[in-house]
Fold Pecanex-like protein.
Amino acid sequence: MGSQLVQTLRQGVWASLTGGWYHDPDQNKFNNSCHLYLWMFLLMLPLLLHLALPPTTMALSIYCTSVTIFFITIKMVNYRLHVMFDEGDVVTPSSLSVIQGAENKSNTSDSCLPPEETYCSDEIAVSAQAQMVIGHHGGAAGNCLNKIPGITFDSPEDDEQSGAENEGEPLSKVDPAQLQTPSPDGQITKELMSSDSAALDCRDPTPLSTTPDNSSSGIDIHSHPDENDPPDLNVDADGFLRIPSTFRKYGPGGRTHEDSIGESSETSTQEKPSPKLYYKLKLFPGKWVNILYDRLTLLALLDRNQDVVENIVAVFLAFLVAFLGFILLNHGCFKDIWVFQFCVVIASCQYSLLKSVQPDAASPTHGHNQIVVYSRAAYFCIFCGLIWILEQMLRRKDLPVSTVYGITIVLADALTFLRDILVGLTFCFPITFLLGLFPQINTFMIYLLEQIDIHLFGGTAATGLHSAVYSIFRSLTALSLLYGFCAIINISIGFYSILKEPWDEQHTPALFSGFCGLLVALSYHLSRQNSDPTVLIGSAKTFSFEEGEDSEDIKDPLPEKLMNSVKEILLSDLVVCSIAFILTFAITSSTVFLSLKVVLYALAGTVGFVTHYLIPQLRKHHPWLWISHPVLKSNEYSQYEPRDNAQLMWFERLYVGLLCFEKYVVYPAIILSALTNDGFSLSHRKNCDVLLMTVAGMKLLRASFCNPSFQFVTLIFTIVFFEFDCSRASETFLLDFFIMSIVFHKLSDLLHKLNFIMVYIAPWQIAWGSAFHAFAQPFAVPHSAMLLLQTFITTLFYTPLSPFLGMYFTSTFIPPGCDDNNLNSIFYEYLTRSLQHSLCGDLMLGRWGNYSSGDCFILASDYLNAFVHLIEIGNGLVTFQLRGLEFRGTYCQQREVEAITEGVEEDDSCCCCEPGHLPNVLSCNAAFNLRWLAWEVTTTKYLLEGYSISENNAATMLQVYDLRKLLVSYYLKSIFYYLIESLKLQTWIKDPSITKALVSYTKWHHIERDPAVFSIKIDEDYVHCLQGVTRASFCNIYLEWIQYCANKLEEPVDCDEDSPLVTLCYALSVLGRRSLGTASHNMSNSLESFLYGFNTLFKGDFRIATKDEWVFTDMDLLQKVVVPGVRMSLKLHQDHFTCLEETEEPAILYKAISNYKISLVICHESDPAWRKAVLSSRDTLLTLRHMVDDGTDEYKIIMLYKRHLSFKVIKINKECVRGLWAGQQQELVFLRNRNPERGSIQNSKQALRNMINSSCDQPLGYPMYVSPLTTSYMGTHKQLRSIWGGSLSLDGIKTWLLSKWVRKDNLTSCNSGVNMEDVDCAGGSSSLSHNPNSITSQNLSLYQARPNRTSQANRQHTAGLVLYRRGTHDTFKGIVHPSYNIKLVSLPGKHYRSK
């Protein structure tokens, strides 16, 4: 614990304060020294230049140039070294060139004296043609401990020559004594094996060393000896090195190393030293230097930039930090000690580009985070850029004084206040980054663009950086188009001139009406589009199968449905936007809006109150948290296990009708009325802000189209506040409504945060588990002011509220995660697809209550607990993400699940007594407890299509030997069935290689006697006296079944006792049982081994014996005969317990196998076919699962049945989720809490802390499945389509008109080829029929065979079409709109010919 605390303080706290620099004792001196000198250089350079030079452009140029050159040099060298490691051009020591000479000998011997203690770094050694030679005094010249880095540019020719010279010189000349390093006591220690020990000696051309045990490089180069390795050192009987007396080294006190070795009893060096590896760094073509270094040491020294672009960005940011920082220093923004503090901030921002803080307080992942490298410098540039701009603005003398909503704003004072705040935040960079107040720069940009798009332009949400940029670009494009329309009007007639002249109350300018129509059309279209551009480009790729996994028999229907939904939206918008433009133009051309304000306000308030408050409260599980049962109940509320789809109730139809009326009529009318009235009043006041009107109108229209749940509250408050309370402060209604929509959004977030805080810290909610809580709670009182300030700050900037009281404020939001390959995750994946079909429609039907962007829900059933996050709410679409929790969660999760599922209706207590409660009303205690929860049950019977799981223990079904014998019998019968039903049967029977291999099986006296395979306990055809299985015993048991299956074939096949078919069946029966025996390891004695072997075959893992290798003639014999037989036998064995005698009949057994082959999917869960079958909505699936959990080893037979599952829908306070996730990130990533039983995942029933934290992405949580961002469309919901009739498109309108043009006399005179029940002879109304006789293939071919007729003939022929609606079923796709079916009718007496 102490070491972890010290590591956190060093790598977390101190590194965050300095920007990444800290002393790491695990690193070598070279790295630590470089880090220190780099940081000091970056700190002192701006400080000294500012103090020594006047604040001129020259000083700025010197500083910026120095920093840029410095960073370019470091980044270039770092990049080139990593490229060198990637290429891996390794140079062995024997290839180094040798330089010999008498001068080098004398110079080297004179310069190398034996010092007492010398050090040099062995981390970097630039070696090129340096040689250590032996002196004349009987000593080694190589005992100099200072390295001589000689850098020589080599050429390929020189390298080859030097290599040739080295070949003639034996390696045995290298004396082992030269490799020894003296320790202070004269002993040879294991520091010889460490790079952090005393440095390498000056050595000969074949330097030898070993990889250190605690090397900074971290690369172990120990290898097997080869012919190029140096000779082993001589070792005596005691294990000590033998050093010749000629090469003795003298240690302190004149003692020789030989004496030291003899006296030492601790050191025994028997490993052979391995040569160090040199990397070849190419400088020019044909020129290089040899580098003794490794990648891990380089990564410990400097962060790696992956490509050239990242290096350019880092250099540019370093230059920008230097430029902006020094400009502010020159402008005199900082005085006295604050100059030094600002230089510390500059140094920390620049140093983080070289060696960043890892992990950072705002990092959501463990390990190296590349985004964090740029975050600090990017924030510095943003803040200093704003400060510089404000400084330039404050230099102006003509700053205006304005009044907004009655508040006088002195612009100079406001800008000065804002500048001082930014300067203070810049000074506090070390503290803010330590506490994680600033998220990653990409997260910051996402949130900034998202908030701008939401609050200014009425956007929905952003799912990533590309989504945020796309949304802003889309909104700005629409705004530019509208504003450009105003400019065109101004050029032609003059939009401003329209407003310069007062409007007549009886006339509205036509061009203004055109502007309003265009505004409504664009706002409607933008509200219908997803913020993610990839959905528009290729929505079919969301859940498509991986490449190479598509199969013809199982096809995923979802991609095509999603693509059709996107196309349907685009085609519908084309029509609806045109109609909206025309209607808006027509309505605004009149003066109806000048006199309907009060009526529209009253209508909006009434409809909004009924739609978004009264009906949702009456449908809640506990209306107003007082009533024990919902007032408006669904049809499934009282059903135990609903089997059908949820029925559409009358109040759901009412809710949808009121919602559509409110979205498409009421609020557009209110906003258009405000535009008209404001334009009329502005024309009399001689001023107009067209841009502000356009922004406000587009924002309010888009927000109303997307989700008007809280619009009526905002509208009522706007009217009351600006009409009665502060009427003088009002600007215009449109602007007032626009401002209040932003204010109410922030107030809603503040309310959620305060609710979470009160619930989380309430004294009666705390689990008093220790004496610490007795005095810890009172100490939370001083935090109240800080917590309140924290709440307001996080609300203003829309950041999560961390649960630590006043400790950590904000953090980055966790990005989407991925699946952890758990076998049960497929159920959550299918649940995601079911939600994709129905979620948007169910939300619009009010089945989840009120909702908004960012809301979080939990779907709880018997075994599935899914966390659903609504990310984007659009007009007719919802983007969400599902996170699946564990099936069998921890103790804490189970306690929270119990809190969700348990009812409070039976609670009779009130305070300390139990007086009971009124009928259908909750008790006082129950109502009080429900109000102190961060979650609420909104629906108890929400139906969703999914799979119910039934499991049986395979051990109980195979405990008795007779049951195992039955399973083996079904196993063989299934093999024979698949063999006979195969299309290759005749080929296999006539194959000469198979016939030759099966000669022994044709003999009646042949006996299979393998005791590990055949046993009387499990084989029905086992002959006890012969101790084996014969052909006769086999035919006695299985011949009847083989002949029955053969007789079912259309082409007859010989199936008597001596037929090749029976021989092949007999051989396959032996092969199947031998494979089972091989996999079971003596299956007759142990149930565990039998189950293990059967499970191995069920997965498709076969171990074929040598005598059975004939099956490899055609692998289909294994894959399409034996493997399906194993799997089918499991199902037949299960059916044996339900119908004991019926399965003995061949006819019943044959029919059962034939039905299961079509309707049932049987395979292992790891098989790709299993996932395809689940995602393709197959009705029934079966598998065998081996479960090993908590010491239990079980085999489960799992059966899946597709049906409607019942869920409870629990709405969670979204600020509770964001706060807990942010706290998890701080605790696990930055504070490095590794305790598996940490307090943050303990159960907290009032906040569902365990379920929320466990649903977070790894490494913070441990969800079983995390879906990608998924979009649900309104058009895929069948019940909703039945209400509004499908999307409006040109094809639909054309088809409807054609259906209305059919004459009644033609319908009543239909010929006998048409079923009269299928035709509505009373008129043009639709009728629904499923009679197959109503559609004749002859007429269809007639219609399709005449595509080239003249237009007149086509019109006449079209008159004979009778159309009827059929929901969403597709028939004759491509002829008319998919929501219609065509029935071709022959009209008697009418002959149509082309003229």
Remarks:
- The mean pLDDT is 75.
- Residues 93 and 1178 are 65 Å apart (CA to CA).
- The radius of gyration is 41 Å.
- The first strand starts at residue 90 and ends at 91.
